[in-house]
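I have a small job for you when you get a moment. Can you supply me with one protein entry, sequence and fold together? It will help me judge whether the discrete encoding reads sensibly. Write everything out right here, beneath this request:
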Amino acid sequence: MWTPDIRTIFLIICLVNAFLTLMLYSFWKTQKTYDGFFIWMASLLCQSVAYFFLLLRGEIPDLFSIIIANTVVVLALMLRIDGIRRFFRSKPLTVIHYTLLVMVFLSYFWFTYVTDSIVLRALITTLFITPALLIAGILAVRLGDKKTRVLRYLFAGSLVAPAFILIARLIFWLVVPLDYTLFSADLLNTAFFLVAILADILATGFFLMLHMVRSQKELRQTNDKLNLLSSITRHDINNQLVALSGFLELSRLSIDDKEKGFELIAREERIVNTIAHQIRFTGDYEKMGIVEPAWQNVGAVVRKAAASLPVQNIKIRVAQQDLEVFADPLLFKVFYNLIDNTLKYGDAGLSEISISSCETPAGLRLIFEDDGAGIPDHDRRHLFERGYGKNTGLGLFLSREILAITGITIVETGEPGQGARFEILVPEGTYRFQAV
């Protein structure tokens, strides 16, 4: 009967992780993936390198086979947590988290060259790895679409399973003190590394499936959105063409009445402009959700939008210059439409537009306000409806749709006569403060 040899298991772990890295790389190059996928791939590569060093214990200096190898194992785990946070919360680990690796390195160095103790090194490994695995599992369980609940639970289970065996191995080594080595063939030591192989395969597979499910869902949403857009736009343009046809007939009948003819031509021009605007709108709408959302600096986006409009002497102030939000690349259109509406309807008293923010339990409240005429109460409830408004009624509708892609909502809360005030609620995990 074959008895698992730890060195052989290390070789298997090294090769399995290298193969998984290659598999994910091929997928990453050919398929749509999301933030965190490349980080997870990097973690597998680190795991492969770490176990290659562990495999060579006794053949290479302890600096590589113990200290660096174990530190890279912890790094691989941190990268996995980083990948999970990016995927579920669009929020990476900070540099401060990675500075913990210095403490890990020094701890392994101390318990290798000063006090050589494999049990204490195992204690360090358990103290760093176990909480991290549990946190990663909780992130996968708590965050995400309800329809992927079973898949996320399986993913979480594959993440945390090695943690329990790691704890059991440490307890056994502390309670039953023997002359242990990394290659000890006791049941728990062998079981931990065998479970690690299975966990790497399962967790990577489930993570890949979560990416595929999200991609398929967005393709379905995009198709539904484009079908709806095609239907609505066809209906709207057809209505405009019917009106245009009527005015052209009236123009033909009024060919001898120059004054009435000019009036009819002006109406016909307005209809043509409306149709042109609707066609341009379809171009913007089709782009929504096609390109992946990205982190964008709010101040930079506002400045870009303002530069495209006749702002003239109107002051535009952005309070938080380091604020970034995770949104569709068409976020520029949101602020373009808000500023454009302010310039059109703010009246003569308009002098300033300000964008500020405050954190709340529900997320970040991003406030866009001006000191213009404000919006009447009877308009507020229909403000974001498609087609409602003095012009085409498409700008604010499009803005709401763009923000909704990453779960951001927008409402108008201003008082008539005291300026317009739009509150944009950015959920936790889709905003951050990043130095410019």
User: Anything to note?
Assistant: Strands lie at 294-297, 315-318, 323-327, 352-360, 363-370, 409-412, 421-426, 431-433.
